[in-house]
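Practice problem. Given the sequence and the SMILES for pyridoxal-5'-phosphate, write out the predicted structure.
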Amino acid sequence: MIWSFSLEVYGAKITFLRAEPGSRPSTEAIADALSKTKFKMVTITHVDTSTGVLSDIKAVTAQVKAASPETLVVVDGVCSVGSEEIRFDDWKLDVVITGSQKGLGVPPGLSIVIASPYAIQTFKDRKTPVPSYYSNWSKWLPIMTAYESRKPAYFATPAVQLIYALHTSLKLILSQPLETRFKKHAAVAADFRQTVRNLGLKTVAQSEEASANGMTAVWLPEGVEVSQLVPALAGKGVQIAGGILQGLATKYFRVGHMGISVMDDDRQHIQKVKDSLVSSLNELGYKN
Ligand SMILES: *Cc1c(COP(=O)(O)O)cnc(C)c1O
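Answer key:
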């Protein structure tokens, strides 16, 4: 939904493909939409932070490109880059947008954009003026080209300290094969979902393959409120989040399991989260 709000600000006319909370739009629904309209762009949220649902961006992109090779595929990877497998070139993605503060484990403040040559060419070919001053690739591309050839150039001051932090994080991430990182996130996420099931609870994501690997949303048991559970865990040094889905926000909670907490076993972060969740629910009167 964040997509739609921000795109509408810039004048986009949007066709929504909705799915019930916890599920994803069906292949048939996507095919039907693609057959009715020639889209300039299809946007996909890789991991829906509000529900922990993982989109199959590889399959959706293949479907879009088969129906309409010119259509750009743009992925919101804010909650997925660093914790979900993304093969930018192989999957023929055009743009992935992310932030520094989630799977990359850097303080907030950077908006990181990866664009394909086709996406950049599409931008260069556009006829309508860009309705933004700072978010304008034609302002930034010459700066980046200059940096790459080690020449100073100025458009606006970058957040230098965050770029150093990003560099440090990326070095750490790339110090082992990415395959290892993705497998570890998948294993920790599957184990966390098993813990949830063992408690007799249900995840919001309705199937294993549609479950994110960096976070999980869980329906609360009858009689336990978010306003009790969040402070109970906070008292044990564990920060979880309430729900944010309109109309259902008070019915579930969300737990992040990504980045250093997953990759560095010595920290015991995930074990602590699981133990604290079990004991907090017991203290709040939930008997499984
Ligand atoms: C966190 C998140 C956002 C919002 O990111 P901000 O940096 O807070 O603007 C957008 N999309 C997804 C999928 C997210 O997880």
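Check your answer against the key. The radius of gyration is 21 Å.
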